[in-house]
Backbone:
C-alpha cells in the first residue's frame, strides 16, 4: 500500500479487549500481591508490544483500595496517586504525562523490569488515611508513547517523513530505518495505538485502542492487521482471552 490513505482515527478508534483471570479478590490483600498483579499486567503489555514495537513511557495510577474486593476507593488517596515513567532521551512531544501533577521517573529504557521497579516504588508509599480493610494498590497502567515498526507494505516518501492524515490536515512523522525495517515515533497526541491495563474482581483487562488506519480493521491496513493479530495470538497463548466487542 502507499502512505496516501493512512489516517489517524477519532479516539478511541477500533479497540480490542483481552482478559486474564488473576484469582479471587481475597488473594490481593498486601503489597506483594499487588506487585505480582503488576508483573502479570506488564508481562501482557510487553508480550503485545514485542510483535509491534516498544513502549517509551508508562502512566500509572495508584489508589487506596478496598482489601475485600481490590476495588479503588475515591477517598482517601496516596500522597502521589499519579506517576509517569519515561525514557530519558526522546524527541519533543513524544512523551507527556496523561495526568496533572504526576511524579516523573526517568529510566534509560522502559523494560518490563524497569516498569515493575517504578510500580513497586509507587506501591511503597504510605496511604496515611487508609483505614482497616484498605490498602495501597494500583488502579491503571497506560501506555501512549510508543515507537512502532511499520508494516512492510507501507511506502515512505522521499525525504524520510511519513504523512498521516489527521482530520483535514496531516502530521509528518520522521521515519527511522533499522536494518531492513522502518520505525516511527510519533508525538503522543497522534499515537498509533494505546494500551491500558485495569483490574476488577479477579479479572485483569488489557485494552488496545488502534488509532492509525494501518493497524485498524480497514481494507488499507491488511498487513498491519496481521501484525496486530499475531500480537493478540501471543497473548492468548499466554492465557489471555479476547473479550468485548470491536469498536470504532
Residues:
Amino acid at each position: 500500500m502507499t502512505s496516501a490513505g493512512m489516517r489517524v482515527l477519532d479516539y478511541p478508534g477500533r479497540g480490542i479487549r483481552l482478559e486474564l483471570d488473576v484469582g479471587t479478590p481475597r488473594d490481593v490483600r498486601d503489597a506483594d500481591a499487588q506487585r505480582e498483579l503488576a508483573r502479570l499486567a506488564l508481562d501482557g503489555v510487553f508480550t503485545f508490544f514485542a510483535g509491534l514495537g516498544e513502549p517509551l513511557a508508562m502512566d500509572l495510577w495508584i489508589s487506596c483500595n478496598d482489601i475485600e474486593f481490590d476495588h479503588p476507593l475515591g477517598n482517601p488517596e496516596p500522597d502521589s496517586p499519579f506517576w509517569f515513567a519515561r525514557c530519558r532521551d526522546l524527541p519533543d512531544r513524544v512523551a507527556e504525562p496523561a495526568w496533572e501533577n504526576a511524579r516523573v521517573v526517568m529510566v534509560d529504557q522502559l523494560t518490563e523490569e524497569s516498569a515493575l521497579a517504578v510500580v513497586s516504588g509507587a506501591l511503597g508509599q504510605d496511604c496515611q488515611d487508609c483505614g482497616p480493610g484498605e490498602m495501597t494498590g494500583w488502579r491503571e497502567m497506560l501506555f501512549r508513547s510508543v515507537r512502532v515498526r511499520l508494516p512492510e507494505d507501507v511506502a515512505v516518501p522521499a525525504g524520510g517523513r511519513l504523512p498521516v492524515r489527521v482530520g483535514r490536515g496531516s502530521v509528518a512523522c520522521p521515519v527511522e530505518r533499522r536494518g531492513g525495517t522502518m520505525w516511527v515515533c510519533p508525538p503522543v497526541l497522534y499515537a498509533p495505538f494505546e494500551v491500558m491495563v485495569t483490574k476488577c474482581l479477579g479479572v485483569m483487562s488489557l485494552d488496545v485502542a488502534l488509532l492509525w488506519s494501518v493497524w485498524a480493521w480497514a481494507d488499507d491496513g491488511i498487513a498491519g492487521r496481521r501484525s496486530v493479530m499475531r500480537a493478540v495470538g501471543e497473548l492468548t497463548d499466554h492465557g489471555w482471552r479476547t473479550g468485548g466487542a470491536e469498536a470504532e
In short: The longest helix spans residues 31-50.
